[in-house]
Please model this.
Amino acid sequence: MNQPDPRSRPIIEVRDVRKEYPIGDETVVALKRINLQVFRGEICCIFGTSGSGKSTLLNQLAGMEKPTRGEVRIGGVPISRLDENQLASFRQKHLGFVFQSYNLLPNLTATENVAMPLLFRGVPRREREEAARALLKRVGLSHRLDHFPRQMSGGQQQRAGIARAFIARPDVVFADEPTGNLDSKTTVEIMEMICTFARNYHQTIILVTHDPEMASYADRIVTLIDGEIVSNQRNQKENPRHET
Model:
């Protein structure tokens, strides 16, 4: 008996989302009635230039801001209706983040930084640090397990950031310009690493970027201009880079 394709089930649903910001006596409309579905196991790129609204949309999807109107659901949960405590709990259980600026805690080692999401889930210290060390070795940092962020290069810090984002196997990982501070060679390595983890763990990736090269790794590219979706289409490459 054939099993249903898990990608036929959306993990993220955005319904008529509008976001306004009051500035003095005026109101700036950052997002205009956004409707979007992102499917389980999909790598979806939110693509646009500076000021297009992509960062605002990311904030809505991750529950960092509440929409002025409309609703965002992740796994059927209306996150735009949750209070701050409920949101914090939801993020710890279901979401991961890879940041452009790495966001590693400076006073923690690579192992301790990567183990942090498991701490929030109540995993015992020995178990979570063993898992963190194993994942750091997978991302090529076996020689940096006990190093602090200041002792690592940008590429090494981002590898640690990726390990931290994926260690708890979240349903959705948000990658906000994850290679913006890296050279071209390291960019390729980081993107291939993110895509490999996503495929192995069947996780959904929301990749936010202005870079067409990064967008080429996605299964689907959603393009924003002036707070509106102007294009939403599958990657037309016959052999996407992350599958070669």
In short: The chain has one domain: 9-235.
